[in-house]
Amino acid sequence: MDKHEAQRSLTDTMAKFTAYVGKHLPQDVLEKLAQLREGEDSPLSRVVYDSMFENLKAADRLNRPCCQDTGVIQYFIKAGASFPLLGELREILGDAVRQATREAPLRHNAVETFVEKNTGDNTGTRVPWIEWDVVPGEDAVIEVYMAGGGCSLPGAAKVLMPAAGYEGIVQFVFDVITSYGVNACPPLLVGVGVSTSVETAAMLSKKAILRPIGTRHPNPQAAGMELLLEKGLNEVGIGPQGLTGNSTVLGVHIESSARHPSTIGVGVSVGCWAHRRGTIRIAPDMSYEILSHKEAAL
User: Does an H or E element contain 282, and which?
Assistant: First the structure.
């Protein structure tokens, strides 16, 4: 196909996939929710989980988003340097969001800062937000994430002094989750970024909640901290929808970078039980493979 046709094809694919992500949770999230439900011995907790699955069935049956807050649309791209539409991707994704907003439909969540006016199509200045990694190759892998107003958007980040150590990281995570982290709808997926400044730690914390649930940091010490944080946060007893229970988190993921010896940057991003995240791989001929949702069809 020619470039114009390829661009139109990819816009349609990404519009449909963005809409799909708002209506269907990825397979790993569904499996974890089912596992956590079985681990609850409180009748109230089980009723809450039952209502979640009933909600998802209704969203599928009615072809409507599974949460009314379809968030700010964010794309995380790992694009091959030879991907044929690399230079057009930003325009394509903006058009895709406008199309998905009309057709899904998605709630209008883009308000121009200082103007205080809703754009009406989920696009605006630097929205959809796009993060890039350019790598060798011809494919593009695109992560779609719907960042809701109660979950990952109220994230937090700060820079600790070295004397705070890794204990300071743990304390910061607990402070966030036990305060306004519960603005999200538990059980929560907790992303922790450990880096050198607030902006790098915050971005790594967001990338952490894009990982499949249960995957572990390649560093054994970091992986051990993930497990310890999961255990500790579950013992807090917040439970599904904050109504107490045996499990507070879907998981804890840490992403890290090397850091300046004088600082420890730490960021926390929180995803709610309705974790609207999806991964799609686009080939050079604009054919695609959905990686995050089992038996998905657009």
Answer: strand 277-282
